[in-house]
Amino acid sequence: MTGARGGTVAGPGPRRVSGAVLAVLAAGLAAFMAWLVLGHRAMLPWRLQWYLPLHTVVETLAVVVITQVFSTGGHGTGRRIPARVALLSPAALAVALLEFGHLMSVPGMPGLIAPAVPGSGVVFSLAARLLGALTLLAAVLVPRERMVARSVHALAMLAALAAVGAGYWLVLAAPGLVPATHVAGVGPTAFKTACEYLLIAINGVAALLSLGRALRHGRRTDRYLALAAAVMALAGVAFVFSMARDDAVSMVGHLYEVIAYLFLYRAIHVAAVQAPYLRLKRSERSLAESESNFRSLMECAPDAILLAAPDGRIAMMNARAEELFGIGRDSAAGLALDVLLPGAGADGQGDVVECRRLRQDPFPAEVRRAATPAGQQIAIVRDLSERSRLERALLEQLTYDALTGLPNRRRILETLDEAIDAARQERRTLAVLVLDLDEFRKINSGYGWAGGDEVLRECVTRLAQMLESGDTLARQGGNEFIVVQKHSGQDAAGALGARLLGAMREPFVLGGQRVFLSASIGVALLPEAPCGAAGLLQMAQVAMGGARAAGPAHLRFHSADMEQAIRDRVDMEAMLRHALEHGQLALQYQPRIGLEEGRMKRMVGVEALVRWRHPVLGLVPPARFIPLAEETGMIEELDLWVLRTACARAAAWHAAGLPLGRVSVNLSARQFQHPGLAQRVRAALEDSGLHPAHLEIEITESTVMRDTEVAAGVLRSLKALGVALSIDDFGTGYSSLSYLKQFPIDVLKIDRSFVKDVVIDANDAAITRAIIALAHGLNLEAVAEGVETAEQMAFLQENGCDEIQGFYFSRPLWPEQLEAFMAREAPQPTT
C-alpha cells in the first residue's frame, strides 16, 4: 500500500503515534484478554441490565467509526488511489450496514430490520466480521505500492453492496439457510464457535503478514493494519469464551471491535489523507530545495548561464557570467540577450560565436540556447579562449619539431603537396632531398643526448644557410632532414646536395673537442607521372638508402632500379621465411683432406654448407640469401637448423660405420653472441646422439675480435662441451696475437683469398707461410680453404699445412653423394 513513510517527513498534520506506543498498546490489550480467558471475568463489575444500553452505545460507535473509514477512503485526492484503500473503503460501508443490522436486531431493540432475537443479531455480526476479515486479508496481500483507478473503487463499492444485500437476504428472507448460532439456556452453538475460530485465524494471518511488512519497511499503514487485525482476532477470542451473549466478556469483545475499527480508520487516514498531504508537503519542500540547488548549481557552474524572459531580456545570470562578460547582474538585468550573444541562434546547440565584452575584446565561445515551456530562454556560454590557445599550441606541436623548430614530417607533407600542385600548374619540376647523418650514434654514445641535440641544432643552422629563397627545410625525426627545393632540376638539386654535404664535413665542436661527421643524401625529382607528397618523399628515402649503401658522404638520385632492388629484397625475405618454415633448405658437405709429407691422406672431416633449393628459382647461391638472413635476424634460426641437421646426419653416418671424421658447422656473429649458445650446442648433441669430439664449431675472426673478453668466455663454454673450435677466414681481420693465444681454439683456417694466388703472389705466399707457422707454434691445426690446383696443394704440402679443402679434391657433395664417397674411402675388410 502506498503512503508516507512513518516518521520520515515533518510538518503539520495529525499527531503520530510511535511504533513503541502501539506495541505497548497491543501488548496491553492482549494481556487483558488473556487475563479474562484465564478465569478472572468475575472480577469485572457487571449488571445484566447494563448490557443493552452499553451494547447500543458501543455498536453505534462502531458503526460511526467504520462509516468514517468508508468516508475517508472514498474522498481521497488524486485520480489514482492505493489498491488497499479501494478494497477497504467499500468494505467498511458494507461492514457498517451489517453492524447496523446487528445493532437493531439484538433482543431488547425495536426489531426494525429483523426480528429482535439472538440468532438474527449473531448472523449480522458474523457476516460483518467475516467480510471485514476477508477484506483486511486481501488488503494485506495486495502490494503496498499498487495504485488503481477510481473506477476500481466504484466496482468494489458495488461488490460490497452486493455482499450487504446477500447478508440481509439470509437474515430476512432465508433464515433457515444459516445454522443456529445460539440455543436458549445453553449458549453459542458449535457452528457459531467454529465461525469464531475461523475469524480468529483469518485475522491472525492478516496481522502476522502486516506485522512482517511493517518490520521490513517501517510503514505506518502496515502497523495500523496489523493492530486492527490483531485486535479483531482478540475480539473473536472474547466471543469464543463468552458464556452468554450479554455477559461482560461479550461486551469486551464489542469494545475490542471498536478499537480495531479505530486502528483501521487510522490506517485509511494515513493512506488516503495524510500520505497525499505529506507527499504534497514533500513536493513543496523538494521544489524549494530544487530551486535552491539550481541557484547553487548556477553559481558553481564553470560556464556562464543566463536566463532571459520571453521577450529576450536578461532576468538572471550567474557569477561566471558576470566575470566572463564584465558586467554586474544589476546592470545586465533588462539588457537584450542578443547584445552579449550576437549571432547565436535561439535554438543553438553548441554554436561557436564571438561574444561581446563591454570593456574588453570579444572572445570565442560555445553557446547552447534553449527555451522553457513558459517561453523563458536559457543560454549556457562556455569560454573557448583557452581551448583555442591550446589547439594552436597542439597544432604547432603536431606540425613542428620541438627541438629545432622546423616543420616535421606531417607539416612538410602538407607543404610538399602544395608545392607539387603549384609545380604541375606552372609546368616546372621540384626536388626533395633527404639527408641522414652518418654514424650519428657515436655522438649520443660519446657526448650524451645533450651533445646530440647540440649537433642537430648546429646542423639546422648550417643547412639553412645553404638554402635559397623558397626552399623549405624540415626535420623528419632522429638525425634525418628533408629539403624541398621548389625551383629545381637535376643540376640544381645536385649542386644543392653537394653544398649540404660540404656543410656537414665541417667539424663540430663538442666539449672543446672537434668532432667530424658526414651525411648521405638521397634526391628525388618530381616525375612526369602522377605522384603525391608521400610517394615523392618515399622516392627520396629510397635514394638515401642507396647513398648510405655506397658509403659515407655520398649522394644518389632516385632511379627505378632502386625501387626494384627493394622489392626484390622484400620478396626474397618472404621466400626465405617460407623456406625456413617449409623445409626448402638442405645441406651439402665439402670434404676436408689431411696432408702428409709427399702425399694426401684420406678424408678427415667435412664442412656443412647450407643450400636453398627453391622450387622455381632452383639452387639459390648462399651469397644471395645469407646476408639477407643476417640483416633480418633469420640467421639465428638458420644457424640452429644447420647445427641440428648436421649433428643428426653425422651421428647417423658414424653409427653406420662410415669414416666421416669431424663435421664442422659455421656460426654467425648473431648466434655467437647469444647468451645460451653453449646450451643450444649441448641440446643438439644430446638430441642427435653425436659425440662432442665429432663436432667442430667455426667462428669468423671478425666475430671473436669484437669483444675479446666475452668471446673468450663463450669459447671456453663451448670447449667445455668437448667440441673442436676453429677460427674461419683467418688473416682477413684485425686480430691481436696476444688475444689469440688466450682463445681455446684447435684450428686456424686460411682464407681462400690468400690461397688463390699463393703460387704467383709472393705476399700471399708469405702470409700463408706465416699463418701455418703461427698455427703450429700455438699447437693448432692449419687448414687451407679454396684449394683448386695441384700447384696450390704442392705449396701447402711443402709448407706443412695440415688439411686442405676445395674443388681440387672435391666440390660440395649432397648427402647421398658423400655416402658413396665415404663408402669408397672406407677400408675394405680382409678376406
Total number of beta strands: 25
Strand order in the largest sheet = 17-18-20-21-22-23-24-25
**Mean pLDDT across all residues, rounded?**
82
Which residue ranges are poorly predicted, with pLDDT under 50 across at least 5 consecutive positions? 1-14
By helix and strand content, what is the structural category? Answer: alpha/beta
**What is the number of helices?**
28
At CATH level 2, the architecture of the largest domain is Up-down Bundle
Write a short abstract of this structure:
This protein is α/β, with parallel strands linked by helices. It contains 28 helices and 25 strands.
Outline the secondary-structure elements.
Layout: H1 19-40, H2 51-74, E1 80-82, H3 83-105, H4 118-141, E2 147-149, H5 150-172, E3 182-183, E4 187-188, H6 190-217, H7 220-240, H8 248-300, E5 304-308, E6 314-317, H9 319-325, H10 329-332, H11 337-340, E7 349-355, E8 363-371, E9 377-383, H12 385-399, H13 409-426, E10 431-437, H14 441-466, E11 472-477, E12 480-485, H15 490-505, E13 508-510, E14 513-515, E15 519-525, H16 533-550, E16 555-557, H17 560-581, E17 585-596, E18 599-614, E19 618-620, H18 622-632, H19 635-655, E20 662-667, H20 669-672, H21 677-688, E21 695-700, H22 701-704, H23 708-719, E22 724-730, H24 737-740, E23 747-750, H25 752-755, H26 762-777, E24 781-785, H27 790-798, E25 803-805, H28 815-825
Parallel strand pairs: 15-16, 18-20, 20-21, 21-22, 22-23, 23-24, 24-25
Antiparallel strand pairs: 1-2, 3-4, 5-6, 5-9, 7-8, 8-9, 10-12, 10-15, 11-12, 13-14, 17-18, 17-25, 18-19
